[in-house]
Design goal:
Layout: H1 15-26, H2 35-48, H3 54-63, H4 68-78, H5 89-104, E1 112-116, H6 123-134, H7 137-140, E2 143-149, H8 152-160, E3 162-163, H9 173-179, E4 180-183, E5 186-189, H10 191-196, E6 197-202, H11 208-215, E7 219-221, H12 231-244, E8 249-252, E9 267-271, E10 274-279
Parallel strand pairs: 1-2, 1-7, 2-6, 7-8
Antiparallel strand pairs: 3-5, 4-5, 8-10, 9-10
Length: 288
Amino acid sequence: MAFDAESLGLQPTALPLVRALVQERMGLFYADDRLDMLSDRLAPLVSDRGFGSFLDYYYFLKYDAASDAEWNRVMDVLTVPETYFWREMDQIHALVNHVIPQLAARPGGMPIRIWSVPCASGEEPLTIAMALDQQGWFERTTIELRAGDASLAALDRARAGKYRERSFRSLPPELRERYFRSCGDVWQVDPVLHRRVQAWRQINLMNLADAAVVARAEVLFCRNVFIYFSEAGVRQVVQRFAEEMPTPGYLCVGASESLLRITDRFELEEMGGAFIYVKRREKPGLLR
């Protein structure tokens, strides 16, 4: 049985209002040619609530005191879970071979803080943990590796640490044998490696307090999320990063994402064949 907006008899009249609310709360932007996707993803939630229109759902999300739990459901259905181990490794190799040695050489033995947001079901932070472990960095310096995502469902999967074949399409087989064990039709991550990720926390980047928490890390992986944001949303999040990140601070975004027209607080630098945005000094705000 289909559960899209058409089959449920939901008219799209108020959908732009819902779109604006989603953009404000989550940063996600749905252009006019993607409104059908937004409609179909939200339609089962509207129906489950017993509403007969997107307008009813809009008023509920915007004004009802009990809507916080519903926003978690919205985040679950709208977040994009596409991820896998050993994805876009150039920046992670640069982290291990260039960034960590620089940070570890600082006087005072301060811990190196790394955040992966959004972490989806955990493949990216666990990839970072594997790469660091391969070079022995966890034994040579103090590293605090944390991960977050807006979706509670994704975080539940990350905390469970169980993965199917699709997640391993780029991971070298010898690393799967070392860090995972077969459990029927899934692979369970090694508990020692899993514990290298010290926290799996719900993070909404459009929430200024959440963005500030992750931005206080020296290294921030925030990859393949800004492609779904409006430019205004990207500016808001990057502004928070620029205000809160230490100096130097290393910001990794996705290969198809660019901040060059967004900010002058980070300089794009090449490190070992990878490109990373680096906060080297305090400078005035975002580009206009």
